[in-house]
Each structure stands twice: as C-alpha cells, then as structure tokens.
Amino acid sequence: MKFDSRDLALMAVFAALYFVINVAQTLLFSGLTVFGPIQLRVSDCLIPLAALFGLPVVGGVTLGCFLTNGYFFLGPPDVIIGPIANLLAAFLIVMLRKHRLVACLVGSLPVGLMVGSYLWIYFPPTATLSFLPVWVAMIISITLSSIIAIGILGYLLLSGLSRRGIIEPLKSHGLKVVENKKLST
C-alpha cells in the first residue's frame, strides 16, 4: 500500500478533528466528560472510520489523541498509553472491517481496558461501583463509555458515511476507500 500526500492530508484532518472535538466538548460540557472517571469522548466515534478510510484514520486518531492528552496533560501515562489504545482500537477495526458492528465493539475494548487501567491514578474513587477495587471500577466505566462512543456512535457514523450516495462522490474526488483487502481510488 502506497501512502501519499492525500493520505497524509487525511491523517492531518482526522488528527485535527479529534483534537477540536475534544476541546469543544471540554469547553461545552466540562472537562470531566473528556478527562475523568466517566469519560465519554465524542471524538472516539471517529475511530471506526478506519474501516472505511484505512490507515490515514489510524494515524489521525492516534496523533489526535496524543495532541489532546498532551494539551490537557494529566501525566505521562495518559500521553503515551492513550494514543497507543487508539492505535490498537483503529487497527483492530481495520482488520475486522468485514464485520463492522463486531469490529466497532471489539475496537472499543483496547481504549476501555488500557485507559481504564491507569486513569484511576488521577481521580479519587467515586461512589459508583464502590464495592469493587478502584482500578476495576475505572476499567468498567471507561469500557462502557468506549462502547457507547466507538461501538454505538462510531458504528452509526460509519454506517451513515458508507452509504453509496455519500461515499461515491468522495471517491470520485480522489478519496481512497478501503474495499476488501486493498485501497482503491
């Protein structure tokens, strides 16, 4: 597969979208919806678009997460592990793209498990799920949030953009779309 200037531009667009959506969500709804124990990042709905647009989205949501987590710096684990979780999630979705709903649900797991495994360090225990160890409760919370953002919202976005009336004009303007095992223009 050849990675050209269009792919690089698409990656930059997805990185910027991921970052801007997080900043807007933070300003509009409070930072706790983007950075907190109940973290529902609306920008994570972009991750499933890797099934449609391929590796530029994988790179874009990884870079976007790095920029977001670096800008709202919680600590080194968040800046390193968060983007790796997005990378794995998007790559899993690309690999499982023939089964899109399954891909989106499976793709939500790396984010939930990896981010949830360290995020508890930054936030005090809450009353929810207090019968569990703090780290387990955080993994459950972040995984459920990821299932909503990636598995449900992302799947709906992917399904909507995959319709012929939307994707065909994009392809006719040179956008590469992942079909079967190769990228085509």
What do these coordinates show?
The structure is a single chain. This protein has 185 residues and is mainly α. The protein has one domain: Arp2/3 complex 21 kDa subunit ARPC3 (Orthogonal Bundle). The protein is built from 7 helices and 2 strands. It has helices spanning 5-29, 50-53, 55-71, 76-95, 100-119, 134-161, 164-172, and strands at residues 177-179, 182-184. The chain has a two-stranded antiparallel ribbon with strand order 1-2. A hairpin with a 2-residue loop joins strand 1 and strand 2. Helix 1 (5-29) runs parallel beside helix 3 (55-71). The longest helix has 28 residues, at 134-161. The protein is globular and about 55 Å long. The mean pLDDT is 89.
Helix share of residues? Answer: 55-70%
**Strand fraction:** under 5%
Given as residue ranges, the uncertain stretches (5+ residues, pLDDT < 50) are none
**Highest CATH level, the class:** Mainly Alpha
General form:
globular
List keywords for this structure.
single chain; 185 residues; mainly alpha; Arp2/3 complex 21 kDa subunit ARPC3; 66% helix; globular
Structure in a nutshell:
The protein has 185 residues and is mainly α.
Secondary structure layout plus pairing:
Layout: H1 5-29, H2 50-53, H3 55-71, H4 76-95, H5 100-119, H6 134-161, H7 164-172, E1 177-179, E2 182-184
